[in-house]
Write a structure and sequence with these properties.
The structure holds 2 protein chains of 2 kinds. By secondary structure, chain A is of the alpha/beta class. Chain A is built from 17 helices and 9 strands. Chain B folds into 2 domains: 58 residues, no CATH class; 77 residues, 3-Layer(aba) Sandwich (Glutaredoxin), CATH 3.40.30.10. The chains are: A alpha/beta, B alpha+beta. The structure holds flavin mononucleotide, iron/sulfur cluster and FE2/S2 (inorganic) cluster. FE2/S2 (inorganic) cluster binds next to helix 5 of chain B.
Chain lengths: 438, 154
Amino acid sequence: MSTQLTPILTRFWDDPRSWTLATYEKHDGYKALKKAVTMPPADLVQMTKDSGMRGRGGAGFPTGMKWGFLPPPDGGPRYLVVNADESEPGTCKDTPLMMAAPQLLIEGVVITSFAIGCNHAFIYLRGEVVHVYRRLMRAVEEAYAAGYLGKNILGSGFDLEVTVLAGAGAYICGEETALLDSLEGRRGQPRLKPPFPAVAGLYARPTVVNNVESIASVPAILLHGASWFAGMGTEKSTGFGIFSLSGHVANPGQYEAPLGITLRELLEMAGGMRDPNHKLKFWTPGGSSTPMFTDAHLDVPLDFESVAAAGSMLGTRALQIFDDTVSVVRAVSRWTDFYAHESCGKCTPCREGTFWLKQIMERLEHGNGSQDDIDKLLDICDNILFRSFCALGDASTSCITSAVQYFREEFEAGMHTSAAEMFPPAASTLFAKETVSA
Amino acid sequence: MPSDDKRWRIVETRMRRLGSRPDALIEVLHSAQEAFGFLDDDALRFVSDSLRVPPSKVFGVATFYHHFTLKPHGEHTCVVCTGTACYINGADEILSSIKAGLDVKPRETTADGKLSLLTARCLGACSLAPVATVDGAVEGRVSSSDLVAKLAGL
Ligand SMILES: Cc1cc2nc3c(=O)[nH]c(=O)nc-3n(C[C@H](O)[C@H](O)[C@H](O)COP(=O)(O)O)c2cc1C
Ligand code: SF4
Ligand code: FES
């Protein structure tokens, strides 16, 4: 019980004007790039493989291996696309990273592009975060002016153009192939795989799609070495990651720690539950798309393997924490509403299934459930899971099936009593004592 | 251009700067919505002609993304996050206070055209929950009374 925080990506976030190039350069900024351009690109790919880093965007695919899947250069363009869509409920790591340290991401982009032989990289941002868009645009301008982007970077002969693009509000555009369609100016709907983006991605050219945090981790790996990175975390889940804590905790926020840390340790660092009189009831290890955990899972090491063995997924390390004032039915109903709203409509199990799940969850939330609603929920989930076109459909079922598994009696109560009656929402809120004139 | 409204110029310049490529559709719709506040038939047709993208595709994209709106907005916009972290931290109460204080519901505009109210599903600032944005500026840990006072004073 002594895992320490490892501020690496977050190390200078509280510096004044941390987002400027000047501040970044004070903190070893672009040192890794200077080293990278003297190395053979293949060595950079090998280094990333050796570090064992697994993608930070949710699925945990080994990053170096992904880069290695690109076919050999054929003279045509190949692309790096940074997935900065971050829309998974509860996930707030990429957005603060880009606000506090945009240059870190840009340096990662240049090194990665150099490693995979890409001369045009894209950063795809979700449309709602206009403040992040402005900050990234400014950071890219600064990097161009300093010669870290553009032609003949640091005299190496390597050229790189970076384009920042904003989506327009659709969770599904975080799915990598939907993102590529959106980048091409279309409705963001997933593509059939194969071909995988590495073979035919953006404009049908070889493309690497990586999460913001994955790319931002590259400079540190290069500076300190693959074995330094692999020395943190666990054997199969190496390195550090940003854990976003939200909900009923005293100090919510981003905690950068080695993978394998437990919620118990993180909670202690975050000052415990917000109200010590209320116990932890349930939490998500990786955002709403991952099956929920309860207080029985406080000591599950938060690495890919252990979380999977305990029946969930590490996902994006979005720890949403709910105390015993919260109705699980109400929370699940909210998530289900999200998935029904965000289903892109391409495939039937998800489009129709989430619609029905939402109707039933609303009934249960308002105490109007019928006798067979729980069975119906589980049956619909069974018809969606592994039968939908992309992972959004699967994700929509995980909060329901896990909630029924741990809190079946609350769903049963939904047949006669509303969630608001059993768990008055005012008890969960931050300003519960404030009165609102009706 | 559909009319001699100067704002069409802005949209046209933007299109030209993007090389009038069909794949610039989303960016162009962003600028058109920024200029006019919403996308009407004239705007969609103008974009469709200029980028040589079929009207059906332009309409498809404009209706797929939640950010684009085909209806006019109020002078100011407030977005209340109703994502999970904000929901359990009182997003509901914020919305009902706004309804009580300013008589406007999500996706509506006040009768005087001053304020449009929208909701979002997680603005990516959950640790600041509950979160709202007023004319694009993010406000964290908002209390409903402060927010209503602020909106009333716009
Ligand atoms: C519905 C859905 C939403 C997703 N949203 C995101 C996202 O917002 N950000 C992200 O990096 N990956 C997201 N992903 C995962 C991506 O498809 C992809 O696996 C990831 O960007 C790969 O990057 P990594 O290997 O660096 O993790 C999403 C996947 C699905 C199915
Ligand atoms: S599972 Fe849902 S989001 Fe994915 S393709 Fe099917 S309808 Fe679209
Ligand atoms: S739920 Fe409101 S910012 Fe995430």
